[in-house]
Amino acid sequence: MKILAFGASTSKSSINQQFAHFAAHQFDGEVNMIDLNDFEMPVFSVDKEKKDGYPVQAHELHDIIENSDFLVISMTEHNGSYTAAFKNTLDWCSRLNNSVFHNKPMLLISTSPGKLGAKFSLEAALSRFPRHTANILGHFSLPSFDENFKDGIINEELAKEFNDLISNVKETLSKLK
User: Fold this and answer.
1) Residue 123 — φ and ψ, nearest 5°?
2) Residue limits of the NADPH-dependent FMN reductase-like domain (predicted)?
3) What is the pTM of this model?
4) For 44-63, what is each residue's pLDDT tens digit?
5) Going from the N-terminus, what domains does the chain have, and what CATH number goes with each?
6) Alpha carbon distances (Å) from 86 to 89, 120, 121, 173
7) What residues contact residue 41 under an 8 Å CB cut-off, 6+ apart?
């Protein structure tokens, strides 16, 4: 199974990149960790789209998603929503092809240093992504990353909840084969 994973952030020290990496490695398969910095695009506008067409990075990301079997995305939150970089990436990719996620099974997660664990960004993704053909098999928010994560989830209750989710997603994936 080809697993595509990334944190929806451009921070070089992204905790969501770390969390996506951890989550993706709970599954059997070849994990492709990407960095959104490698897909930097101009700020979306219809004028730029008309003048210049679609950035090559949108095509590249589209192809990577299409050629993956399973997606693990960890949502970062800035001021209660997606990061500007991720939103811009989604805007370009959805204009290229509204089927951004190609009905690929997806684990959608989030974390933050705060007690809400980027829940607002996660909730926005849960609402929005299905419109772009996301097949979300499960979701999880990890609060207080620095207190609850050290090479894995250290809070026993949260670890159990996460592990139960992973088991359920694995079971669903096995039925999809």
Assistant:
1) -65, -40
2) 1-138
3) 0.97
4) 999 999 999 999 999 999 99
5) 2-176 (3.40.50.360)
6) 5, 15, 11, 26
7) 55, 57, 58, 88, 89, 92
